[in-house]
Amino acid sequence: MWTCKNLWKKLSPLARSSSTLCRQNARGVVLNNERRLPLVPQAHMSSGTPGSGGDNNLYYLLVGATCVGGGFYAYRTIKGDKERYQERINEIASRPNKVVPEQPITEAPGEQAAETPQAAEPATVAPAEVPAPTPVEFPSHAPYLLIGGGTASFAAARSIRARDPGARVLIITDEPDLPYMRPPLSKELWFSDDPSVVDTLRFKQWNGKERSIYFQPPSFYISPQDLEKVENGGVAVLTGKKVVHMDVRGNKVTLSDNTEISYDKCLIATGGVPRNLQVIERAGEEVTKRTTLFRKVEDFKALDKVSRDTKSITIIGGGFLGSELACALGRRSADSDLEVIQMFPEKGNMGKVLPEYLSNWTTAKVKSEGVMVITEALVKAVSFKDGKVEIKLKDGRLVKTDHIVAAVGLEPSVELAKSAGLEVDSDFGGFRVNAELQARSNIWVAGDAACFYDIRLGRRRVEHHDHAVVSGRLAGENMTGANKPYWHQSMFWSDLGPDVGYEAIGIVDSSLPTVGVFAKATAKDTPKAATEKSGTGIRSESETEGTASSPVASSTPEPPPVPERKDNYGKGVIFYLRDKVVVGIILWNVFNRMPVARKIIKDGEEHADLNEVAKLFNIHED
Ligand SMILES: Cc1cc2nc3c(=O)[nH]c(=O)nc-3n(C[C@H](O)[C@H](O)[C@H](O)COP(=O)(O)OP(=O)(O)OC[C@H]3O[C@@H](n4cnc5c(N)ncnc54)[C@H](O)[C@@H]3O)c2cc1C
């Protein structure tokens, strides 16, 4: 008995000194065996009267067998620990950028020793094989890990911190910049009279106030190295790093340099990349060199330079991005000999969104900004000849230019779907998520990359700033346990310069039946005047602060109905209908009334007279 106990006393510290990975095991071994030891006297006492010879023999037999068995068990456990320990050392040695703990772990001294490879196994792990401690660049673990450094990620980070003030949030972005907003890249930045705008990335909003495109200055963020240490947590950003693999079972991601970072909860907000036309991709290097796909800060900087260095720029695409850039460059051409051409397959600008009469009106507006607009233009071939890019159209027309901007849509970034085993929607693209923006139990998706279930309008994917804000915020809330569905309809807006703009909500698709109600615009019905009044520049900020109270009809006397074909569409409301229910609304030069539109969509009712509904927007008031 004494021998057995002493044997265990000798064995237990050995078991305890095995690797940290096996710490739990080692404790288990000691505990199990300590439990087993008291069983021996218990067995002895129950098997007969103490002192009887036969009993004693049986007792020695039992003690002996237990000691031998226990010793064998302990030997195997320690051997197993050693093997697991060795595996861990090998794994650590093969891991690049492993975070080396700055402070030794301060639990049991025996366990500490085991944590340092050299101390525990000097014979098997030569110092040269152990990676030299590299400067700690990455946290090895982030409770909240957000992939992508765009608007959706930033909104999620903000809402996570609002609900969980001590939260440690890590944003990983493959861009070199801290999170920034994209809308000014095709609008205000182009209208700045500050020649250093490409460096400062500060711009005057339409209301004259200056601001930066960055959501927050660098001082707002903590450094990734400090994420695990800082007392109250914070938001850290790893810039210039791409997540290339997701192990959703192991709760970890791998970066392109093979670094692994584990997480508790993960948001995918990877946005998308601009599409290109196949004819441009096939056209060769000279054309590729002279083509801009516009999405990022660098693209703005590059196009700004091109607009100063070349004589002719052709924008392919008639959507909001192409039309905004056309207007911006058109304005610039007024003071230079730059030629700006815009071409697209539709009959008019924003033809996929606006009803035909309004699309035609918009085309006239873009032309008045100095842009040569070529409608119904299908690009057949692109080549580089005699120092010019030649664009051949299907109907035989030929356009010669110096530079192309392809603004032909977005491809959601879903490369991670494969390794993560996540579903990509076959109709809309993007990661398929439920109404709570959840793809799996601890993975959410927001922004342009999310194909979500809108409990009001069905399955959708939305590529707009305010949606990135709204969905990012919701995902952040749900990552902290809110379990809320998507119901707050996001909006989007587009400005053709400071004088004409629209705000839209719901499904705005020109193939749906529409009803438009217009009124005469006044000087205050412009994007510029609207931002002056609200004091904010990014319109989604002004509108999301508004309350979605019940709309109240205007007390203004009923105006005469305005026919849809009116030539001057000063300001108005366009309703988009599906099965007679309003599923989308455009507020044309009508600003800061989005809560009313949101309420109409949310109610989802049939309306007998949409002129009456239009009154809720007070468009006939001066
Ligand atoms: C020039 C321009 C003007 C716009 N104007 C308007 C407007 O007026 N109104 C409007 O409503 N909307 C506008 N938009 C659209 C709006 O900006 C987008 O809908 C919004 O940016 C989407 O946000 P997001 O966070 O989902 O994606 P993004 O902003 O695209 O951010 C995704 C980020 O993730 C990064 N990333 C992707 N994959 C990885 C990876 N594997 N690892 C690490 N990082 C990764 C990307 O590089 C990117 O930085 C505009 C867009 C552009 C480009």
What is the domain total for the residues? 5
Shape: globular
* Strand elements, count: 28
CATH superfamily of the largest domain: FAD/NAD(P)-binding domain
Distinct ligands: flavin-adenine dinucleotide
| Average predicted local confidence, pLDDT | 78
What ranges have pLDDT less than 50 throughout 5 or more consecutive residues? 1-55, 70-134, 542-566
- The number of helices is 18
Proportion of strand residues:
15-25%
Largest beta-sheet characterization: 8 strands, mixed
Radius of gyration: 33 Å
The structural class is alpha/beta
Distance between the termini: 100 Å
CATH topology of the largest domain: FAD/NAD(P)-binding domain
Question: What percentage of residues falls in helices of 4 or more residues?
Answer: 25-40%
Q: In the CATH hierarchy, what is the architecture of the largest domain at level 2?
A: 3-Layer(bba) Sandwich
CATH class category of the largest domain: Alpha Beta
Summarize the topology.
Blueprint: H1 2-16, H2 23-46, H3 53-93, H4 109-115, H5 117-120, E1 141-147, H6 151-163, E2 168-172, H7 197-200, E3 202-204, E4 210-212, E5 234-238, E6 243-247, E7 252-255, E8 260-268, E9 272-274, H8 278-281, H9 285-289, E10 291-293, H10 297-309, E11 312-316, H11 320-333, E12 339-343, H12 356-368, E13 371-374, E14 379-385, E15 388-393, E16 398-401, E17 403-406, E18 410-412, H13 416-420, E19 431-432, E20 438-440, E21 443-445, E22 450-454, E23 458-460, H14 465-479, E24 491-495, E25 501-506, E26 514-519, H15 527-534, H16 539-545, E27 571-578, E28 581-588, H17 594-603, H18 610-615
Parallel strand pairs: 1-2, 1-8, 2-5, 8-21, 10-17, 11-12, 11-17, 12-13, 19-22
Antiparallel strand pairs: 3-4, 6-7, 7-8, 9-18, 14-15, 15-16, 20-21, 22-23, 24-25, 25-28, 26-27, 27-28
Flavin-adenine dinucleotide (FAD) binds next to α6, α14 and β24.
